[in-house]
Write a structure and sequence with these properties.
By secondary structure, the chain is mainly α. The chain has helices spanning about 5-20, 25-50, 65-75.
Length: about 80
């Protein structure tokens, strides 16, 4: 649908945009759209990088015996929650 735009259609669209927004606002609008696209690409790349390279600080699935004992001791030290009823 949009792939069939010719040069005359693009010129008409550009004239309409210039009339609606004015010559001063068109570069501002273009800059803000470009900034939005850049931020979107950056966030997509960050998510992709997080998926491909998981964080190094994550706790491994298998813990050493000493680490299990220390984690169990920390869990035991937490107070029991108060009951409302």
């Amino acid at each position: 649908m949009l792939g069939n735009l010719g040069m005359s259609e693009l010129v008409i669209i550009l004239v309409i945009v210039l009339v609606l927004f004015g010559a001063k606002r068109v570069p501002e609008i273009g800059a803000s759209i470009g900034k939005g696209i850049r931020d979107f690409k950056r966030s997509v790349n960050d998510v992709d990088r997080q998926i491909r390279e998981p964080e190094r600080d994550a706790v491994p699935d298998r813990l050493a015996a000493g680490e299990r004992a220390s984690m169990k001791a920390e869990e035991d030290q937490q107070p029991e929650p108060r009951r409302l009823l």
